[in-house]
Specification:
275 residues, Alpha-Beta Plaits
């Protein structure tokens, strides 16, 4: 029994080694033109048609070619290769299409590794990166999407993207805060300038009012001085006029001399009294 099993294992290893030696992905006439613009789509629903898959792929960019793989009997194998016209569209599908549900089944999307990774082998030759056939229950990967290592790498990529978005958001918040602070400072400066201008105007108005008041006071004092000088001049004129009148009266001759008749005009002095 053990001898037969060992013989079968030897035959299988010999056959596998021969298949690996004969396998050359670059000589496959059914392969797409450009491997670096091609994605591998696996775990497809066997009922999924090429038209449905083309429609799903074209949501990420224009397609150049789509090849769904069938076995020798013409039955679908559940995977396909899609070549995009632009590499950026291939990268978009690689990042966003993985784990997407098509016809009720989530697919796995990966780059084409047969022609882009050295010494790469497909699953049927003992290679591949899938984890759905590792062993029994608890060992096989059951989640949708690429293999665990790839998922871990993309988890790191998503974490880096989240960190970048967080940094961008923080930078945007800081910029917004700086702009708000700048606007507040500008508003405060404008308010301060307006207050200073208003204060300057008020001070100018007060100075003008003080000057006007001072001018009015000076004018009133000048008027008072002029009035006092005018009154003093009038008093002086009256005194001068009075002095002239007194001088005139003092120089006037006595009445007897003014009459020219001696004592004829003198009134009698009355009887002489004897004592």
């Amino acid at each position: 029994m053990r001898a037969k099993k060992a013989e079968r294992d030897e035959r299988f290893k010999a056959k596998l080694a021969k298949s690996i030696a004969e396998w050359d992905p670059h000589s496959n006439p059914e392969a797409t033109k450009n491997a670096f613009k091609t994605v591998f789509i696996g775990r497809l629903n066997y009922e999924t048609t090429q038209a449905t898959l083309v429609k799903e792929c074209e949501s990420y960019g224009p397609l150049k070619d789509l090849k769904m793989i069938h076995d020798r009997k013409g039955k679908p194998t559940g995977y396909a290769f899609a070549e995009f016209e632009h590499e950026r569209d291939m990268l978009s599908a690689y990042k966003r299409m993985d784990g997407h549900k098509i016809d009720g089944k989530r697919v796995v999307v990966d780059v084409e590794r047969a022609r882009t990774v050295k010494e790469w082998l497909p699953r049927r030759l003992g290679g591949g990166l899938g984890g759905s056939r590792i062993g029994g229950k608890g060992q096989n990967i059951t989640h949708s999407g690429r293999f665990e290592q790839e998922a871990s790498r993309h988890d790191d990529d998503r974490e880096r993207d989240r960190d970048r978005e967080r940094r961008d958001r923080d930078r945007s918040d800081r910029d917004r805060s700086d702009r708000d602070r700048s606007d507040r400072d500008r508003s405060d400066r404008d308010r301060s300038d307006r207050d200073r201008s208003r204060s300057d105007r008020d001070r100018s108005d007060r100075d003008r009012s003080d000057r006007d008041r001072s001018d009015r006071d000076r004018s009133d004092r000048d008027r008072d001085y002029r009035d006092r000088d005018s009154g003093r001049d009038r008093d002086s004129d009256r005194d001068r006029s009075r002095d002239r009148d007194r001088d005139r009266e003092s120089r006037a001759p006595p009445p007897s001399i003014r009459g020219g008749r001696g004592n004829a005009n003198l009134e009698p002095l009355g009887p002489r009294r004897t004592y």
